[in-house]
Every structure is written in C-alpha cells, then in structure tokens.
Specification:
2 domains, five-stranded mixed beta sheet, 14% strand, binds glycine
C-alpha cells in the first residue's frame, strides 16, 4: 500500500472531474472455487485498490461529492472469524490508513444508495465484471440484471481512465519490481527447459517464482510449444528438440502492479536457421517499434509500422509478396500477425479493460477498425508521458487459418501460400517488453531480459 496521501489525492482528483452525485466503487468479495469456504485466491478490484488501497474482501467505497464525505463500508469480524482467521484491524483502523474517517456496516450501503436515488441524485458506478457485484447493483438500484453494465457512468469511466492511464513515479517503481520478478521467471524458464519435460513443469517453476516474491501471476501463464495459438494455457505437451517455446507470463507485485513479458526460445540449445530468420524479423520489429515511442505518437501508427516491417521481412523470405503498403492496408499481414501491437499495463494486465477497451485505447473520435487483425488492437491512441504499455509483435503460422485463407484465395496477390504452407508446423514467435512513455521518449521497464539471438542462446546454454 502507498502512503495515505496518495489515496486522498487520487480521490480528490477523481471528485474534481465529476460535478455532483455519489461515486460508488465496489470492492471484490471472496469467490468460491468448489464450495463456499474453498475460495480462489482473493484478488481485489483494481479500481477499488487505486482509490482506496485496501486489499481485503467485503468492502465498498462511497464518495459523496456534494457533501464532501467519503465512507468505507465493510463488516467487522466476529469472534468466530477471529478464531479461524486470526485478529484483524477494525474497518475504522484500516480506513484511516487510506485517509478515510467514516465507516459503516456493509448492509447500510444499500440504504445510502436508495436514499440518494430517491432524491434524484446520480450514483456513478463502474461496469461490474463479477456477477455477485452485478447482482448487488441490480438489486440496490432496481436495474434489470442484464442492463446493469449499460447503466455504468460514462463520466466516471472517463475520469478513472484519465487518472489511471498516467502512472506516477511510485507506481512505475512498483512496475519495475513486477518486471524484475517477471525477468527472474523468464530466466528460469530459459534455463530449466529441456527435451522430455512437460510444459507444466516450467509453468510450475515460473508461477512459484511469482508466489515466492509475495506476488502472483498477473494472468494465466502462456508457456507452450504451440505458440501459434495466441492465448494457449494448455501445459500438457512434452518439449521436444527442434521446437520453440513461447513464454508469455508475468508477475504482479504484492501491490498488484503487473509485468507482462514474452520471450521465445528453442528447446534445442540453439535456434535453427529457419527459426532464426523468423525470430530476427520479430526482434527487429520489436526494437524498432520501441525506438519509435514518444509522446504525441499514435500507437495505431506504431502498430501499422510493425505490420509493414513484418510484411517486408516475410517478403524477403518469399512468404509474402507485392506492395507492402497495399498488403498492410488490405490486412494481408494479419494472417501471420493477427493481434494488436500492445495494450496499456498497470494493475490489470490489460489495464482498465473492464471499463471498456475503447475508452482506454481509443481517444474521442477514434474509430476502431473492424478489419481482421487491426480490430484486435487494444491501444491506438496518442501516447502521453506516464503511459505504460506493452510492445509485443509476433509472427505465427496458424495451420487452420492458413488453410482457410488459402481455400478462399484470400489476399492471393500478397501471400505466397505454397511457401507459407512449408511453415505450417513452425508455431510462433512473439517478443514483448513493457515500456514507460517519458517526456523525452520512452524507458523500457526492468533489467534487460535476454532478447537477441545470441543472448537467448547463451541463456539456454547457461
Ligand atoms: N500477455 C497476454 C496478453 O497480452 O493478452
């Protein structure tokens, strides 16, 4: 947790952006895994954490803008809880740590909301993504359950996005920590991989490092010999010589700031020539895209720059052909690079995604493309100092997509299908770093993680 003044200041800046009414920020509850008392590891809501800092279940924060009164709602533990869970600070003690002097039992929250609504006051809330909170909001505010999300306050969403998008130096320090733990996880995967072991063994090692650092995974680990499947969470394959391992995983710190790094390495200690050729295109693209980052640049332009570099690289290998600009405009490169170049990063790995991707990644007036590939670009807007984002180009050979496009003769003028089919068992390469936009340009977060062919091969042989 940061100093209480951080939370006071954040709430103050939030209130400044809304004229009147109440701001309701729901914390998360415990979530049962297979019976009520056997819960998933508790994860607090990131926006509640941002404004109220308290990392325990059963809390909500209410800011009355007109009365200038902030209250934390939550229930004190009974002696039965204390017997099973040990003594805990009171709600009032915890609230004071984040600069809040008013507390109330959780059951009183509904009354406060109904009273405000009855007086015609607005209660601003964020779109719920957990069903238990959706049900609470539905019941308290008499909103049909299926439209609760639509009734979320756009003013509040935009205010939260404007604040959370700009990371303060203390947040950046936490994110550096997250990336450094993530670095240790990637080094361990590179060092411990060998033919004959299960992906699950490596996945266990990397998750153990996140847990041992008093954090946890910031998202389910992608650690696979089938890197062509973008979000592959299956860990049941055995590593074999000649394969590539794509590891896309990260730690979140005890304060829940996330790292999100991808590296790709050969199961054999060295890359094959074919692997090197594809890897080099992705590496050059990643490095050049990071170089291009500075305030004022539109991330959509950097994404399209990546698409052009990948197209050029694949043309040099005879896999693509034709005019690069026309191929990218048509979306032909997306056969091999079907996702966006990156996204915002913070306490959520896709930062603030629950508020609506377009609020976060597309500025007012920016239209999201519907074209395959470009439609998956989560961040397109103009970059500002304080943004932290991922840069993660990749090249994939997805047999099912390759076959489908070939059958449809899709982008025939830009894709040499005969050559591309020779790579159908290649899998995929993605390389990803986490970057802070600074006044002067950018800064890659964390200590360097092996990335060049020489560095990765040296790490595999360490
Ligand atoms: N690193 C996983 C993702 O960006 O979706």
């Amino acid at each position: 947790m940061f100093d209480k003044n951080t939370y006071i200041e954040r709430r103050h800046r939030l209130q400044e952006q809304l004229d009147s009414g109440l701001i309701l920020l729901m914390g998360n509850q415990e979530s049962p895994m297979n019976f009520p008392d056997n819960t998933y590891r508790f994860r607090q809501d990131s926006h509640f954490l941002y404004f109220f800092g308290l990392d325990s279940p059963g809390l909500a924060g209410l800011i009355d803008i007109d009365e200038q009164k902030t209250t934390i709602f939550g229930d004190e533990l009974t002696i039965d809880h204390v017997v099973w869970m040990g003594p805990q600070p009171t709600i009032a003690e915890r609230a004071r740590r984040v600069g809040v002097n008013e507390t109330s039992p959780y059951r009183e929250l509904e009354g406060r909301i109904r009273e405000a609504l009855n007086k015609g006051r607005q209660v601003h809330f964020l779109p719920p993504y957990r069903d238990d909170n959706r049900i609470r909001l539905s019941q308290w505010m008499d909103i049909p359950i299926n439209i609760v999300k639509n009734r979320a306050s756009e003013t509040l969403i935009k205010a939260v996005v404007s604040l959370v998008s700009i990371k303060s130096p203390e947040e950046v320090a936490e994110m550096e920590k997250a990336v450094n733990i993530t670095r240790a996880m990637h080094l361990a995967a590179m060092r411990r991989a060998r033919p004959g072991i299960l992906e699950a063994e490596l996945a266990g090692i990397v998750e153990g490092i996140a847990l041992a650092a008093n954090g946890q995974l910031s998202y389910p680990a992608i650690l696979t010999v089938n890197g062509q499947t973008l979000h592959n969470h299956y860990h049941g394959n055995t590593l074999k010589d000649g394969q590539l391992v794509l590891g896309d995983f990260g730690a979140e710190t005890a304060t829940h700031y996330a790292g999100d790094i991808t590296r790709t390495f050969p199961v054999s200690k060295t890359f094959s020539t074919r692997q090197k050729e594809i890897y080099k295109i992705v590496l050059d693209t990643e490095v050049a895209c990071i170089e291009a980052l500075k305030p004022g640049v539109f991330y959509r332009d950097v994404h399209l720059f990546a698409a052009r570099m990948i197209t050029e690289g694949l043309k040099a290998l005879g896999i693509m052909k034709g005019d690069t600009e026309e191929a990218v405009q048509a979306g032909a490169h997306a056969l091999f690079f079907p996702h966006g170049l990156g996204h915002m990063l913070g306490m959520d790995v896709h930062d603030m995604e629950g508020l609506g991707e377009d609020y976060v990644g597309y500025g007012d007036g920016m239209e999201r493309s519907t074209q395959f590939g470009l439609k998956s670009l989560r961040l397109a807007r103009k970059l500002m100092p304080g943004f932290v984002l991922t840069v993660e180009p990749g090249i994939y050979f997805i047999p099912e997509l390759l076959d489908m496009w070939e059958k449809e003769r899709k982008h025939w003028e830009f894709i040499n299908y005969e050559k591309a089919q020779q790579y159908r068992d290649f899998s995929g390469v993605r390389i990803e770093d986490n970057v802070l936009i600074t006044e002067a340009g950018h800064q890659i977060l964390g200590r360097p993680i092996p990335k060049t062919i020489q560095e990765v091969e040296a790490e595999r042989q360490a």
